[in-house]
Amino acid sequence: MSEVITVGLDIAKHVFHAHGADERGRAVFSKRISRGKLLDFFAAQPSCTVALEACGGAHHWARQLTQLGHEVRLIPPAYVKPFVKRQKNDAIDAEAICEAAQRPSMRFVVVKSEQQQAAGLVFRTRDLLVRQRTQLINAIRGHLTEYGWIAPKGPSHVAMLADLLEKEMARSLPEAARAMFRLMLDLLAGLEGKIADLDKEIARRAREDEVSRRLMTVPGVGPISATAIAALAPPAETFAKGRDFAAWLGLTPLQRSTGGKQKLGVTSKMGERTLRRLLIIGSSAVVQQASKRGAPKGSWLEQMLARKPRMLVTVALANKIARIIWALLVKQENYRAPVAAKA
Prior knowledge:
Blueprint (H helix, E strand, L loop, with lengths): L5 E5 L4 E7 L5 E8 L3 H6 L5 E5 L4 H10 L3 E5 L1 H4 L9 H12 L12 H32 L12 H9 L1 H5 L2 H34 L1 H6 L7 H10 L9 H7 L4 E3 L8 E4 L5 H21 L6 H8 L2 H22 L12
Parallel strand pairs: 1-4, 4-5
Antiparallel strand pairs: 1-2, 2-3, 6-7
Helix pairs in contact: 5-8, 5-10, 8-10, 10-12, 11-14, 12-14
């Protein structure tokens, strides 16, 4: 029997499927494995390369299999799909993963530690609470419209709505409606407190982490963006240049070039959307301040604002910030503002 060199593992909640191949890529086994027997199966296997799709639970199983002496490689699901021959089932998916892992030009995802996943969970939790806060505010505004009250937008006006509910609105709203509005406002106040606590935790992490402090020297990068990059982004050495990091964030143009003709479209929006959104928010703040107070004379930002639309400049600045972040991470230096050349 040929020696297994690569194993493609299709993971799920309860049922897994492993496809083993030898050094020539020929199938050696295709086996269905239950969750409870997975580690025992791989403990009995000689050390080999185990490939998984980078999906939910993949980092956990990658750490477990690494402890058993195997080399684990995580592949983005989009890069596995072209190797699926026909139809879809666990055996075919495992075979496709095994085939993709043997390609010399395949790109892999770095396995995260439990600490990195815990740090990323802080931002996921905060995003969840912010979305719930937005949903509550929109619900309150929408229901008030049914009674003829047009509430202003934004969370900053919630306190005013609470005062109006007890005074001016108390006469025109039914008691059942007032009770529901009070309930939603109480839930909103609880979310505000939890979001504030998470903001303090993120600020504390940013102060204590050297990488985050270095990233916060870049204009447009605050504590939330800095700690998110440190927690969610792969090592900077993974990318050959700053443009590759910006492309991973989805901040580069979408290419549809053919026949030697270069055709660049809109921003690709591929990759880590959380970091992309944070960088665009930070760059929009920089562009807003430059529009009000003026950008430094002779700077790149001043030239862009003079000839390009504001939103285009915002995305272009986010791209530029991403490249700066990559350079700071690779060189382990602080940001130094460029000095305009003297005439």
